[in-house]
Amino acid sequence: MAFTFFFRDEQILALAADNLVPFTIGRSNIRILNAGCAMGMETYTFAILLAEKMGKFALRNVKIHAIDIDNENVDFGKTVREGIYHKDHLQRIPPQLFNKYFSPADNNDHFIVSQDLRNLIEFEQYDLLTLKPLRHDYSLVICKNVLLHFNYQQRIDVITMYHNMLLTGGLLVMENTQSMPEEISHLFKRIVDYGQLYEKI
Ligand SMILES: C[S@@+](CC[C@H](N)C(=O)[O-])C[C@H]1O[C@@H](n2cnc3c(N)ncnc32)[C@H](O)[C@@H]1O
């Protein structure tokens, strides 16, 4: 099972949400790619952070495309779509957000993400290394703790594909220990001193 948890790297995700909000003004279709979403904890964490910043009403214009290569060993698609998690996985969520966005599922051990957040998410099984762009109109690509599985050239190829998939001015966020390869540094502008948050040039 992939290592992931709710509210992992919250600081950089919150910063990405802050920077996304001005980009969304005047746009009616905001597309976000969550690449390597695993069981969706990152996807729903970002959805919660965005809902808190934009308000649930504004979220009707947002779609989060959650993709992962793994859908055979573990049914990520089902978990992400249903948004049902065991209570042990939910301990890191701040209580006020947990109370706002989760309700008990069919038994006491499991909780379900609110319907309005689930409506934002589309899951698709997809291998990033096919290097086939899924769309070309993303406003944000979230790709954390995935590129470390690839070799250097594959990282360059995948990040170049993200550049291709983003609207001009769109954002890319990676985990703090990932850096932009020198060979493609001209494609993105880093927009914070700390953290790997970039804007497409
Ligand atoms: C360590 S998890 C990271 C999960 C989440 N992004 C996070 O930061 O908590 C890495 C995920 O990348 C996925 N992955 C690895 N290679 C991939 C590929 N070629 N295409 C799509 N997903 C891939 C794995 O299946 C796994 O779910």
Instruction: Please tell me what the overall shape is.
Output: globular
Broad CATH class: Alpha Beta
* Mean pLDDT over the residues: 93
Q: In total, how many beta strands?
A: 10
CATH topology: Rossmann fold
Ligands, ions, cofactors: S-adenosylmethionine
Task: Round the Cα radius of gyration to an integer and report it.
Answer: 16 Å
Question: What portion of the residues fall into strands of 2 or more residues?
Answer: 25-35%
> Which percent range fits the helix content?
25-40%
Distance between termini?
Answer: 36 Å
* Helix and strand run: HEHEHEHEEHEEHEEE
Total helical elements: 6
For the report, how would you describe the main beta sheet?
A: 7 strands, mixed
What is the CATH architecture term?
3-Layer(aba) Sandwich
Give the full name of the CATH homologous superfamily: Vaccinia Virus protein VP39
Order of strands across the main sheet: 6-2-1-7-8-10-9
Name the quaternary structure: single chain
Write down the domain tally. Answer: 1
Which stretches are poorly predicted, pLDDT < 50 over at least 5 residues? none
